[in-house]
UniProtKB/TrEMBL annotation:
GO terms for cellular component: cytoplasm. One of its GO terms (molecular function) is oxidoreductase activity. InterPro entries: Fungal_SecMetab_SDRs, NAD(P)-bd_dom_sf, SDR_fam. This is C-factor. Belongs to the short-chain dehydrogenases/reductases (SDR) family.
Amino acid sequence: MPGIPLSVLITGANRGLGLELVRQMAEGPSPIRHLLACCRDPDGPNSQALQDLAKRHPEVVTVIPLDVTDLGSILRCSQWVGSLVGAGGLNLLINNAAILTKDTMQTASPQDMLAAFNTNALGPFNLTKTLLPHLRTAAAASETAAMSCSKAAVINIGSFMSSINRTSQGYGSQPAFSYRVSKAALHMLTVCAARDFRQSEILFAVLHPGWVKSAMGGERAVMEASESARRLIHVMFSLTEEQNGAFLNNEGAPLPW
Ligand code: NDP
């Protein structure tokens, strides 16, 4: 766990896994300077729990409007982030926001494919690129040489459903065609970025949260969002240079691409 107060940005922070990540980081023992909890409708009914959480931790949690499919929204978010984090930079970006449609290759329309790609792959791409100056600032400001989530890192929340290796053996219970394809793109983005930004000492990894009870995971899922978030936080802060570009489960074990 980190010793120096960190700045962390989480997308899709108003419900599900994103909300739990914010809650546990805000209420946990790790020293957090800024928790930038991004969601697309901060004043809407689906953001009430996040607003309540922010009210309980006003020094740490800042709710920022962000639609990851809207470049203007991303630019406004980045300006806000810069004004908050300043010379310390942004240590950790968690690309968590995503959509899943229950489609197949037969039923998915081109619009479904674009919507999934825009949210699940292009969103993280645009946001990461836009926030890179703040991540670079954090890497440069860090006193440690080793890569880590306490220094500068991008964690992309991926999915075992988008493991090509696993899907070649069957769909399981859910085709979710557009989702699988778009998250596989996110996985590849992560591997490329891990290579590209190694010199900049920014760590990239994909984490699979498990099958989690949420609007996306459904009630039959095997794990509460709180348990998944607890495990993911532990894994994130255990990552080293060795896991740069890795695809890991919620216990930190490697998964097949
Ligand atoms: P939820 O459906 O519960 O939450 C999705 C979040 O993404 C919401 O906060 C939603 O905001 C946000 N979001 C969607 N589109 C956008 C957008 N354009 N801009 C900003 N935010 C957006 O999902 P989970 O919490 O279960 O999933 C979290 C992550 O975990 C996702 O990346 C998912 O793919 C991954 N995952 C989940 C699994 C599970 O079993 N649940 C399994 C494997 C991976 P809004 O309220 O505005 O819609």
